[in-house]
Amino acid sequence: MIDRYAMGNVPWDDTLPPPEVMAVAAKLAPGRALDLGCGYGRSAIYLARQGWQVDGIDYVPQAVAGAAARAAVGGLSARTCFHQASVATLDFLQPAYDLALDVGCLHNLDKDERQSYADGLRRLLRAGGVYLLYVRLRQPGVVPENGPRGMLETAVRTRFADGFVLENVEHGVTQVEGQPVWDSAWFYFRRHAGMAAAS
Q: Considering the domain boundaries, does residue 68 fall inside one?
C-alpha cells in the first residue's frame, strides 16, 4: 500500500467521498467522526465541511501528510486531525464518536487485526452511534488474487454481533482500475443502545 501511494497509484482517491457516506452524513447532526483508513482524507474533509470534528487514521505516512495538507488548504485544520497509526491499534483515541466510517480498510486486515479493530470501535463509538462499512465480499474457500483479501458476509455480521445492530446491507459490485469486478457491500451498523462507549 505504501508503494502505491509513492507511485501515485491510488484509484480510490477522489474529491468527494462515496455517495453512501454523503447520504449518511446528511441524515445526522454534526458531531465527532472517525475515518478509519482515511487515505488522502476525502471523507474526513467532506465531513469537516459539514461541521463535523473528524479524526482520520491511516498507517501510510504519505496519505496522512496529504490529508492534512488538503485540510489546511481548505481551511479545515481546526476541524480535522490525521493520525499515522494502525486501525487495529486505537488505544490513543478517546470516546465518544457519533459516526465511524471505513471505506475499504477492514477487508485488508488479518484475523487478529480485525478483532482488535472491532474491540477499539466498540470502545470508541457512543451508544446509538452509526458505523458505515464498505467491504469486498468473497465466497467461502476463495481467496482473491487481486485487490483486497475480502471478507465473507457472515464474518462481517459475526464480527460486530457483539455491541452493534446491523440495520441495512446494500449489495453491489466494485470495479477498481486494472482489476476484475468484485462483489461488495455497504453495511450500516448502529451501536447498541445498551453498550455505551467507555467515558
A: yes
